[in-house]
Amino acid sequence: MTAVDIMIFIEPLNRLIKDNKAFKGEKVREEYFGGFCECGGIMFQKSWFSDDGARFLISECEKCWKNELISFNGNQLAGEKEEVQVIDRVELREFLREYLSPSEYEALVSKGRGESYNSSALSRAKRRLEDIGITIEEILGFI
Ligand SMILES: [Zn+2]
């Protein structure tokens, strides 16, 4: 699996991975309208991401829990709504297992458990995670 080819929202880390880039989100704490879902439900804004004038909004449907991404160029809408795959706490582990090699994943898990680990595998894991904008420190609490 080439995980970074797809668009995913890693909810526990509030991170959007899109076009091989990672964006750190800003959570929306209030219930702001985020459009209508095709199921007829109302969508609420969940997180905003920005990068060099481009902004992305992820909204979630209150009824079917679908998550969609809307792109903005400044304040202008840019492009169609896109469905986004959400990775929760449990799926995060699965995602890492697929994204990293077995030895990299193993080293990460061992480090998380405070056991001895292969340090060259861990530095490879660290580099690969940095490629998608994630630090080892923030991931350790989830594995
Ligand atoms: Zn819906």
What labels would you give this structure?
11 strands, 143 residues, seven-stranded antiparallel β-sheet, four-stranded mixed β-sheet, elongated, 4 helices, alpha+beta, binds zinc ion
Helicity range: 25-40%
Rounded to the nearest angstrom, the distance between the terminal CA atoms is: 20 Å
Radius of gyration: 17 Å
Mean pLDDT: 91
Contiguous uncertain segments of 5+ residues? none
Tally the helices: what do you get? 4
Q: Number of DSSP strands?
A: 11
Helix and strand content put the structural class at: alpha+beta
Apparent shape: elongated
Largest sheet: 7 strands, antiparallel
Strand content: 25-35%
What small ligands are held by the chains?
Answer: zinc ion
H-E order: EEEEEEEEEEEHHHH
Structure characterization notes:
The chain is an alpha+beta fold and 143 residues long. It contains four helices and eleven strands. The chain has helices at 89-99, 102-112, 119-131, 136-140, and strands at 8-10, 15-18, 21-24, 26-27, 33-36, 42-51, 54-61, 67-73, 76-77, 82-83, 85-87. The strands form two sheets. Strands 4, 5, 6, 7, 8, 9 and 10 form a seven-stranded antiparallel β-sheet that branches. Strands 3-2-1-11 form a four-stranded mixed β-sheet. Helix 2 packs across helix 3 (119-131). The longest helix has 13 residues, at 119-131. It is elongated. The two termini are 20 Å apart. The model has no long low-confidence stretch (mean pLDDT 91). Zinc ion (ZN) is lined by residues 37, 39, 41, 61, 63-64, 66.
